[in-house]
NAD(P)-binding domain superfamily
Amino acid sequence: MAKKIGVTMEVGNDGVAVITISNPPVNSLASPIISGLKEKFRDANQRIDVKAIVLIGNNGRFSGGFDINVFQQVHKTGDLSLMPEVSVELVCNLMEDSRKPLVAAVEGLALGGGLELAMACHARVAAPKAQLGLPELTLGVIPGFGGTQRLPRLVGLAKATDMILLSKSISSEEGQKLGLIDALVPPGDVLSTSRKWALDIAEGRKPFLRSLHRTDKIGSLSEARAILKTSRQLAKKIAPNMPQHHACIEVIEEGIIHGGYSGVLKEAEVFKQLVLSDTAKGLVHVFFAQRATSKVPNVTDVGLKPRPIKKVAVIGGGLMGSGIATALLLSNIRVVLKEINSEYLMKGIKSVEANMKGLVSRGKLTQDKAGKALSLFKGVLDYTEFKDVDMVIEAVIENIQLKQNIFKEIEKVCSPHCILASNTSTIDLDVIGEKTNSKDRIVGAHFFSPAHLMPLLEIVRSKNTSAQVILDLMAVGKAIKKVPVVVGNCIGFAVNRTFFPYSQAAHMLANLGVDLFRIDSVITSFGLPLGPFQLGDLAGHGIGLAVGPIYAKVYGDRMFRSPMTELLLKSGRNGKINGKGYYIYEKGSKPKPDPSVLSVVEESRKLTNIMPGGKPISVSDKEIVEMILFPVVNEACRVLDEGVVIRASDLDIASVLGMSFPSYRGGIVFWADTVGPKYIYERLKRLSETYGSFFKPSRYLEERAMNGMLLSESKSSRSRL
Ligand SMILES: CCCCCCCCCCC[C@H](O)CC(=O)SCCNC(=O)CCNC(=O)[C@H](O)C(C)(C)COP(=O)(O)OP(=O)(O)OC[C@H]1O[C@@H](n2cnc3c(N)ncnc32)[C@H](O)[C@@H]1OP(=O)(O)O
């Protein structure tokens, strides 16, 4: 059925015109909506039978903001004229400066442009639990319908800058306390109360307030300057490589110094510049890429319904198992945690409790909710409880035989509908399920550490995994607030496979004589939160050593073998786990580079002996980025070529959420396309001539470079999905 898009107006006997926005599912402000709003506001202002106006969104949602598809069209075409020149005409002239009072009837959500329209009304009546916010900065732009000026005038400068810079939304309950919402009423009363409120303003019983003209919440100029100084420090900390945060503060400041109208004009100007920035392009891409992951051909489009998953068994209470159990419990799913002896079980239970405690102490969870979650948790030493679980997630060490035995056992004790999932990060699923007759219900549920915090869930399907099982796991993933990305089966799957050259390239550079702390610092300046050496410290170096041979077996032709990890472990450094790796870890302080590790590096350099003429190479920061990330792009090309992901943008999301690749660069493939496949190909070719096959460009990259194609352009692939 075609969705009904448009703006309607109905004038009641009370003289109130109700203007309704309809654009399912979130009433986004697409071009026909904007022109419809202009037309209806003009009409309502002219009609003599209209005394007052109420603005509402259809189907219980006020509006999710400006239509983000328009940004994408502007990015594809470079054509700014696709953006409406409406900020002042619609929001100031037709709405806020209207002679007839206007009330926003807010239900469900008012985000971005949606909240900005509501703030241009003369009062706001809301239903409980409506979501209110200005998340534009997450898209690389700033609010463009006057939000930078009206929000500070309604809630105060400190709260407004906090909400805008951190893209934090608030509930209508909090909105009422702050003065953003004038009345909070039961959902069924929102429209009737709004009508009455609008008439009360029209007839002088309530004040006719124009947000842009208000000054009561702004404070003195010196107070405002102090708040903006703190905001600038915050922006520097949270978004060092992004332009929109600082630009937004400048725009807010303009309004404080020269008045709200001047601020609105500057806002439109800055918006225009930002919408075409690389940051906006990357972030808008990520917005749509994330939503695309929930569309899996032959799984989500064949009429299947997810089955309820109420009880899950987790096998293994180590770091991963306890994190997974925590994530499930937090979403009210009953969990049984199985271990092989009481000592390990107690450790697992304590880890889950510690995870909850950590969330409570950071204010992310109430004590009450933590208690409720833990009441759904049980530790066990045998399989008795497994008979009625809906899913098992195995999270033991990466040992093929152990996993095969576990799957053989659980096949016997669980019901035939039970999903059998493995949290392996590396091992082929077909191998894990080899000894069972249940291959259709075996699936990979690859969480990222710490599993209760990291947002990605890589769902690995083998050729035999049924569509129903994939759909069920996707639903569980969403229920526990993860972003599930469905990928094909291969060693390392999509994320770890794409990123295995990351640390190897770093090791090669260090062995070529580049300072390892400089490498980490260059990579963090590029935007990854941790450089490769600090990341290794965090994961623990034992893991790298354990999975290395598994990778070597299949990808050995393009691996750099560095003795550094082994030497590091021999010198008693296992990273953060034991307080000492490349860095020193002391409780309560930031990791410090450990100069004494340089003797380990020297030993490694002697063994590899790859420095040309025995002398350290000289490289620029740009070259360091290229030598570390172009091999990652090269492996991403192989992942695309083999059809391990459904679409290139899935790999972008997986890299952003699984590896913390900077979202403002759009993900690994998007970034590579921005740099240019031809440039990357030529650089890798040169590097491979100097340093060997580790850098050899893949066939896919070469083809794309030669044919002037983007890496993300789809092709008929040899899909594994
Ligand atoms: C010449 C230049 C002059 C300059 C003048 C300035 C003019 C321009 C002014 C712009 C003004 C404005 O300040 C800018 C904005 O408003 S930007 C948008 C701000 N809003 C957001 O960022 C909200 C984004 N959306 C969400 O956070 C969530 O989608 C949600 C609204 C909370 C709903 O979440 P949920 O229920 O989980 O559903 P989904 O996320 O899956 O979304 C469902 C589908 O809806 C699509 N969607 C959502 N929001 C938008 C949107 N704003 N625009 C377009 N589409 C949207 C989403 O993609 C899903 O679609 P599919 O089902 O197809 O995947």
User: Anything to note?
Assistant: The longest strand covers residues 16-22. The chain has three domains: 6-276, 311-489, 496-562+611-706.
